[in-house]
Each structure stands twice: as C-alpha cells, then as structure tokens.
Specification:
By secondary structure, this protein is of the alpha+beta class. The chain contains seven helices and nine strands. Strands 8-1-9 form a three-stranded mixed beta sheet. Strands 2-3 form a two-stranded antiparallel sheet. A two-stranded antiparallel sheet has the order 4-5.
C-alpha cells in the first residue's frame, strides 16, 4: 500500500471515529488539541498575555508582489505548478476600485487571525485552531480536507492542496488533501522574528517608511499599538464582530 493510500485509509477511519483513540485528545468543533496548542519551545510557552497582530498601511501599498513572493519562498509554495483556480496562496494582493470616484487601491489580504474565528468554529476535527497568542493555523496531521473552514472564512484566505508536494520546508509542513492558510509565519514569530511578508514589504519601502507593522496588540508600548493609537486602523468586515488580528490604515 502506498503512503498516499495509507493516508486516505487513515482519514476514512478518522471520520468513522477511529481517531478517538488518540491519547489525551478530545475531538469537538473549535477545540484546540492539547498536542498542538503550544508551538513554542518549552521554555517559552504560548500564553494569552500576548496577541500578535499586523497593521498594513494601504496608502503605501503600490501593488508590488514582494510580500507574496516572500511568503511563497518562506513556505515553499513555488515548487508545484497549479492552475490559477487551484493555486495555494497564503497572501494575495487585491486591487480595489471605487466605482463612484475611480480611486484605485491595492490591498494585501491574508488570514485575518480572528479572535472569534469562523474556521475554528466549523472544523469537525479541531485541525483549524487558534493559539492563545491569537495566531490561527491548521494542523495538517488531522485535517480531513472537508473544506468547511474554506466556506466559513469571509476573507477567502484558505486554499486546498490538490497536488502532490515536493521540496517542502521543514518549518512549514504541508499535505495533499489538506487545507492551509497564512499562519503569520509562526515558526519565525516563535523565534523572535517578524513574518516574512512584513520583512519583505518594509525592505521594499525602506525601514524608515514601513508599510507593515508587526507586534503585540496587547502591549500599549509596542510600535503597532502606538501606530493604531495615533492613526487608527480598520478591520475588513468589522460588522462581523470577529476582532481580527490584521488591521488596515487608509481603507
């Protein structure tokens, strides 16, 4: 039996209830699994004293693809050739046009890392999860590819892996038949680095004129908090009441 067939058998058994034998795991919609709740090293456990967030200055976005290319390289998304309708994207640049005024604007859009995440609520296995520090991610090992989270996400921020994968990054495991999305470069965050998109964007614009800010939304002294306090920031679809971790200036 091939590895791929074994995975398919596992998933079918999982749906049927066989996975309930996994020690220490309670499977329920929206539940964060104990085995994957903390991705940080043991000496730096994740806790809810921090909430990571990103502020994007839409006024400075010139429609370049540096953030997209950096993300693709960081997570190894460039190594399979897909149809555009099936292509995995963790971040994409959306071009907006106001029909009334003709004003055009480019806007980077990724998982918004909601406090009340619809993707987590509808996931039947707990694969879609939200860490205590606000980062939303997918555990590919228990994702069964039902795609409920894709339908629930109002930001169209999730992709389904249709093809076999090659040249995967050790820090960003992926799997055929799984759903995936931006995880705010959790492997970088856990090692005190900024997400790849933030680094690439600010390199493009110059460190003295940053267009993206990353930091702790709970720390009133962090740069992102100071920027939000001084200039404000908006959520996409704030009417949904999801309290997103990604905010925008200039919308």
């Amino acid at each position: 039996m091939t590895t791929e067939n074994k995975i398919d058998v596992y998933r079918r058994n999982f749906v049927g209830g066989a996975a309930a034998a996994v020690a220490g795991v309670a499977i329920a919609p929206g539940v964060i699994l104990n085995s994957v709740a903390h991705a940080k090293p043991a000496d730096k456990p994740v806790d809810n004293s921090v909430r990571w967030g990103i502020l994007i200055d839409a006024n400075k976005c010139d429609g370049c693809s540096d953030c997209v290319e950096a993300c693709n390289e960081e997570h190894g998304l460039n190594h399979i050739k897909s149809r555009d309708t099936q292509k995995t994207q963790y971040i994409r640049v959306v071009n907006l046009r106001d029909k009334a005024t003709g004003h055009e604007q480019a806007l980077p859009v990724m998982c918004q890392h909601c406090e009340t995440a619809p993707c987590v609520d509808v996931c039947p296995t707990g694969a879609s999860m939200r860490r205590e520090d606000g980062i939303v991610k997918v555990d590919m090992h228990i994702c069964i590819g039902c795609r409920y989270c894709m339908m629930a996400c109002p930001y169209k921020a999730r992709s389904f892996v249709h093809e076999a994968l090659t040249e995967q990054r050790a820090h960003s495991p992926r799997g055929k038949g799984c759903v995936e999305s931006c995880n705010m470069c959790v492997h970088r965050v856990d090692n005190d680095m900024e997400p790849a998109c933030v680094v690439a964007c600010n390199k493009h614009h110059g460190e003295e004129e940053p267009a993206m800010f990353f930091g702790d939304l709970y720390d009133e002294n962090s740069e992102i908090s100071q920027q939000l306090k001084k200039f404000g920031g908006k959520q996409i679809r704030a009417d949904l009441g999801l309290n997103t971790g990604v905010r925008y200036r200039g919308l």
